[in-house]
Amino acid sequence: MPSDEPMRLNSKRALVTGAGKGIGRGCALELARAGADLILNDRPGSQELAQTADDIRALGRQCWTVEADVFSPDGCAALIQSAIQQAGEIDILISNPAYGKRDRFLDFSTSEFDKVIDATFKSGFHIAQAMARHRVELGGGGKILFITSVVAEMPFEECSPYSAAKAALNQLTQCIAVELFSHRINVNAIEPGWIDTPNERVTFSDDVIDSSGASLPWGRLGTPADIGRAATFLVSDAADYITGTVLPVDGGFRFKDMRSVSQLAPKKAT
């Protein structure tokens, strides 16, 4: 039955991968604010996972942590198994694993290509499959949400394997949504735009991020909370009739170069 507060996730149990920092952390915190209990995953040895867990418990929610390397099929299976053992049940999966490597197409090594595809595409497939099997065993229902990227649609230099992996995730979203209709498992994806995360601050200087953000349609880069709020909607009862959808959450980033010259020119003083 739909809730009287369809955006609330009261007592739902959500598994979020890559939850130590960035978009994963942003999703975990926003789901907790909406009432969900969280199972947090990050790589073995993560220094940030404990802090995210403490912040979620401070919001009054239950929280469990699972360190697992989801860049392999065995790691994905171990994650789902451990999450079920600790929390008893998983209602929501936010699938967020990825590995990006910037290099020119002509120079991209086979080993790095395989790592990008394994971490960014194959891991999403294996985690979602294990989650779906869990929900089917329970009689159906549940939510699967992939975090992809606008680069699935935008051909940037030095991003070809990563962009292709994210595009594959978009197609996977739609394919498995169709297969899971009869089980009433909603499967959707979010395409973040340029988001201000710790990894972006490593790749680009603060000056580049600040100046580039000011030139974007919304006047800033996105935040992990922006993605988390969209995720909260898509895994809530408010989005019960939405499945197989890929939702860009980018502040207009995809269309940043489509403004007229008059819009881009600085305003003259009057």
From TrEMBL:
EC number: 1.1.1.127
A single GO molecular function term of this UniProt record: 2-dehydro-3-deoxy-D-gluconate 5-dehydrogenase activity
Oxidoreductase keyword on record: yes
InterPro entries with a match to the protein in the record: NAD(P)-bd_dom_sf, Sc_DH/Rdtase_CS, SDR_fam
Keywords from the UniProt entry: Oxidoreductase
Pfam families: adh_short_C2
Superkingdom field: Bacteria
Family as reported in the entry's similarity comment: Belongs to the short-chain dehydrogenases/reductases (SDR) family.
Protein name in the entry: 2-dehydro-3-deoxy-D-gluconate 5-dehydrogenase
Name of the coding gene: kduD
